[in-house]
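Researcher: Here's the sequence for the chain we discussed earlier.
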Amino acid sequence: MSAAAKATLCLWYDKDAEAAACFYSETFPDSRVTAVHHAPADFPGGKAGDALTVEFTVCGLACIGLNGGPAFPQSEAFSLQIATDSQEETDRYWNAIVGHGGQESECGWCKDQWGLNWQITPRVLTDAMARGGAVAQRAFEAMMTMRKIDVAAIEAAVKEAP
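Model: Thanks. This is the structure I predict for it:
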C-alpha cells in the first residue's frame, strides 16, 4: 500500500485472496492489484511460498487480502457498498459478481464466490433515502421488494404524489 495510507481494509480469505483481488481489479474502476507477498514459512492456512497477503484497491479503497485459512468466513455483518449512476452500471457490477460464482440476496446485496458481501447501490436510492419523509419511505418500500435494485422503479416511487 502507499506509504501515505494510514488505514487499509484487511479482508480474510480462505486461500484465494489473489484470485479475488484480480477479479475485483478487472470488475471495478480505479481498482488494481499492487503486490503479492508470499509466506516465508508454513502457516495455518498454507505452506511456505504460498501467497499470504495481497495488496489491492477496489474503487480507490486500499485493501489487503489475507489468506488465513477457513477459520473466519465472511458474513453479512460486513459488506462493500458500490455506488452506481445508472441501471447499466448497476447491472454490470451485479451480473459480474453473481455471474462469477456469487449469489443474489435482497435489497441490492449480493455475495461473491469468496463469500464477501457487496451492496450494489444506485445513487438514486441513497439520494431518495437522504431526502427523508414520504420520499424516503416510498423508495424504501420499493427497495424492500427487490433483489438487484431497479433504478426505474425507485425513480417512479420517488415521483409518486404523496
